[in-house]
TrEMBL record:
Transmembrane annotation, as ranges: 50-70, 129-147, 153-172, 232-253
Protein name as annotated: ABC transporter transmembrane protein
Compartment list: Cell membrane
Main location: membrane
GO CC annotation terms, alphabetical: plasma membrane
Entry keyword annotation includes DNA-binding: no
ABC transmembrane type-1 domain location: 17-289
GO molecular function, one term: ATP binding
A family per Pfam: ABC_membrane
Record flagged with keyword Isomerase: no
UniProt keywords, alphabetically: Membrane, Transmembrane, Transmembrane helix
Topology of the protein relative to the lipid bilayer: Multi-pass membrane protein
């Protein structure tokens, strides 16, 4: 993995720095709406001051608008970098295929698979390789840190909810990775047989191709089971988190250790950390898949650095 990231940074470092800055800004703003939400809820009551409420709502809206402006800039530049990398991968692999001095050349079927699908997955990943995990981790730290600063017990409970989710994904993802690698190899083989079937005995080739299709189906079935199992476990843990905050928050309110605004903000915080946490776990899955595809591309072709890219504009 580190070699993969070293290649990415060596070829896209300048563009990644811009994405890092934007990610840090968005992550820093993640907890701001929670404070406004807490203050607005606590201000509601018989002694409500309208001018205070209007000011808080205006601030809340302002934070939302500013955050989404920075998110737009981040997503746009990330998408450009990914698309530019896809273009460079395709060009380098195709060029190496027609290089008479190349020692490794994929056949027509494998070349088509690399250019049409594998380059897309690796290139798209490069666009978010650094900014995405930084944004999600930064958001988690920002939100959980805010809740912990306002009510340590609720903050500790949120951290407790994150740990089992990480354990589940780390345990199951390696199994998914193996199946992704196997599926890619079988799909390449099927593509190669299809491209060469006119040069071989048709009946024999058809049997091999159909057998490959059956293998792909079996592999995908295993991937579905693992992915859906992870999703089910994550949903159950999220439900436990919501019930836990309501229970702990209610007990703390009974002891006059917190207020309703903090409990409501904590529920919102749980929803906010669910999104970046799920995206972070999805990123880990994409990293695993992209690394597998990257390794297969390197082994199949003498193309120069598959993640080399020009500066995205």
């Amino acid at each position: 993995m580190w070699k993969f990231y070293a290649r990415i940074w060596r070829n896209t470092g300048k563009a990644q720095i811009v994405l890092i800055i934007l990610s840090l800004i968005v992550a820093a703003l993640a907890a701001a709406p929670l404070q406004f939400q807490k203050d607005i809820i606590n201000s509601l009551g018989p002694d409500l001051e309208v001018n205070v409420l209007v000011g808080l709502c205006a601030g809340y809206l302002g934070v939302i608008v500013v955050t989404n402006i920075f998110k737009f800039a981040l997503n746009y530049r990330s998408s450009l970098l990914g698309e530019d990398t896809i273009r460079r991968i395709r060009a380098s692999v195709y060029g190496a295929h027609h290089n008479p001095d190349a020692s490794r050349k994929p056949n027509a079927g494998t070349l088509a698979t690399i250019i049409s699908a594998e380059a897309e997955e690796v290139g798209r990943f490069v666009g978010q390789a650094v900014a995405n995990p930084l944004l999600q981790v930064g958001t988690l730290v920002s939100v959980v840190g805010y809740v912990a600063s306002t009510q340590p017990y609720l903050g500790a409970f949120m951290v407790f909810m994150i740990v089992p989710q990480a354990a589940i994904v780390l345990f199951l993802q390696e199994k998914v990775n193996k199946r992704v690698r196997d599926r890619t190899i079988v799909l390449r083989h099927a593509s190669s047989e299809i491209s060469d079937e006119e040069m071989k005995d048709i009946s024999q080739v058809q049997d091999v191709i159909v057998d490959d299709f059956d293998k792909i189906y079996t592999i995908r079935r295993g991937i579905f089971k693992l992915k859906l199992s992870m999703k089910m476990a994550m949903n159950v843990i999220s439900g436990v988190g919501l019930v836990g905050i309501l229970l702990i928050g209610g007990l703390l309110m009974k002891q006059n250790m917190t207020d309703v605004g903090t409990v409501v903000a904590s529920i919102s915080a749980l929803e906010r950390i669910n999104s970046p946490w799920r995206l972070l776990l999805n990123f880990y899955k994409e990293l695993s898949a992209a690394r597998v595809k990257f390794e297969l591309i390197v082994k199949s072709s003498d193309a120069f650095d598959p993640v080399e890219t020009k500066k995205a504009s």
